Amino acid sequence: xxxxxxxxxxxxxxxxxxxxxxxxxxxxxxxxxxxxxxxxxxxxxxxxxxxxxxxxxxxxxxxxxxxxxxxxxxxxxxxxxxxxxxxxxxxxxxxxxxxxxxxxxxxxxxxxxxxxxxxxxxxxxxxxxxxxxxxxxxxxxxxxxxxxxxxxxxxxxxxxxxxxxxxxxxxxxxxxxxxxxxxxxxxxxxxxxxxxxxxxxxxxxxxxxxxxxxxxxxxxxxxxxxxxxxxxxxxxxxxxxxxx
Length: 244
Hints:
Blueprint: E1 3-9, E2 12-18, E3 20-23, E4 26-29, E5 33-38, E6 41-49, H1 51-68, H2 75-99, E7 106-114, E8 121-125, E9 131-133, E10 140-144, H3 150-156, H4 163-180, E11 188-194, E12 200-205, H5 213-227, H6 231-237
Antiparallel strand pairs: 1-2, 1-10, 2-11, 3-4, 5-6, 6-7, 7-8, 8-9, 11-12
Helix pairs in contact: 1-2, 3-4
């Protein structure tokens, strides 16, 4: 399984992805986010799904970038180009994968800003090659194992949220997923993009870098539950019939 989160806020973009790869009983580490940038062309691409589909589609896409990158002056054009390569892989491999009992499966998040984009952009691409842009009211995408980390982001994230807060939320979403999904784990890769900078920063965090945070967060959660207003709890408990 995979965890990838990308957030669009007023000041830029924040992305976090895990690196756990599971094949049967074998577990390895590999990057799930790639960065493409030069001049005023800056974008990152995160993926969740079959590794073989990802690697082939990315190989084709990188070849297209080498030959036609100057044609991509807006990010959606690059997204369309990757979608074309994804469909190409589907045409080549989908039936063979199906015969082997595997679904053709690759979800992608593409974020960044190209020279004619008025602002930074964030898109999610589906296995069929169609895409959606991040909605203003819920400015983030999760792919892979998304259910565990979604609540914390939904409750706290706003478009005006700072980049620092957005990164904390992305980490907490990852941590919630890591606790409940055995196939999501450290190290994590962080990508950061500041609006109109055309420069993506990347950083890798190991378990030991953040080992103090899970216990701190768990303690805060327990304290918050204990301090939660509880008049309604006492009303409910009072309905219990005392044992004779």
